[in-house]
């Protein structure tokens, strides 16, 4: 036992307390030790919430590096702060007997605000924030960072704050738990909360043997289940995930939760298994949550922390949003608003021999104004498969369709019966179709079925690509945004307008939103 075990630790009061507990236990076994305090990124960056820093193992990375550089022999951590996958060459050497697992609310004066509509609660934890808002949706959450002492001081200094949330083990271990504090037994703690963990180099047999004598088996079993559950949900400090396992009457009792960051969505799971038959508990519970909307919820949480690189000028359906490649963080909104016009009866008093419909908006206008029996058309010509499908579902059989207006005009010049056509269009329709028909002695009766109004917004500078579905969406976008990006277009007509403004214009193989998404995915492969 001649080797001195160098114990790496953060230099906060709580971290030093935990390291000294390990030091004391090792020395009681006859080992020589030395404390080596270091600062971590999590201690140095105090102006942002933890979940915004985007670093896995923010409180452990500095100690990992020190260990791999052989500057320390072991590191002491709060196990809840440790990533579920350790760096290569580093192992979990021991877990000490667990302390209080609960979260604690430290409040001012009294607890009356818990029954009030308005209150201000401080926490830097996304998990605590989400669970509090799930229970008290009208309360306001403010960010609170720093070590335990500085957080308590900030609570004291901010007169308008009603309370702040802490780990009960943290404030209890260093003896600073105020009288004005209650355990939140309804709040599911962070996986492995209340447990102290020791890491060591996998190659260091001397240190591993020493630490093994400190290991508490029951705590190890329970925290392993909780961390495996966290790992299978692909969570970390950036996701509101809670988990707690405990042993009672030779049974493992487990409860877990996943929430949306604002607390409006919550998925819970519980499981009880006999000790010794518990190896599938974490996997079963994670799968249970994933199958009940957890995957979709995790995807939205992950994307919320990423910068948008693709923007759509038309709102996506949920199914369309899920088609994107994992490298893409997309947002969507409608850059044009449609206002349906009243179509005067004089246009429809007799059967119309030939009509043209180039969008679903025109169909909506017709069926809003009139019943299908009142819409008497001999020949219906339209643009796009989806417009065709809607026409045939709501009005009648389509005589012919093309993928864009220009091709339809060329077809009509060649094959249309008669020399007159009624065109149900927008107030912002393009000139291609009526110009070609007029030049070929076909009379075009234009009926303004709907109005197109620009409703664009300024997109983030992180956007690299924009998706367009009509010339109007292009025109709306360029009113408020730069054009030094890639334009992905649904078809030739939209691309023609885009080429007036963008250097890089790409066109989908078929004129559907899904095809434009496929084109974007190919760009990011």
Question: Mind explaining what this structure looks like?
Answer:
- Residues 221-276 form the Porphobilinogen deaminase C-terminal domain.
- Residues 346-517 form the Tetrapyrrole biosynthesis uroporphyrinogen III synthase domain.
- Monomer.
- Pfam families: HEM4, Porphobil_deam, Porphobil_deamC.
- There is one protein chain.
- The chain has 525 residues and is of the alpha/beta class.
- The strands form five sheets. It has a six-stranded mixed beta sheet with strand order 16-21-20-17-18-19, with helices on both faces. A five-stranded mixed beta sheet has the order 2-1-3-10-4, sandwiched between helices. The chain has a five-stranded mixed beta sheet with strand order 7-6-8-5-9, sandwiched between helices.
- Helix 11 (318-321) links the parallel strand 14 and strand 15.
- The protein is elongated.
- The two termini are 55 Å apart.
- 40% of the residues are buried.
- The model is unreliable at 42-46 and 48-56 (pLDDT under 50).
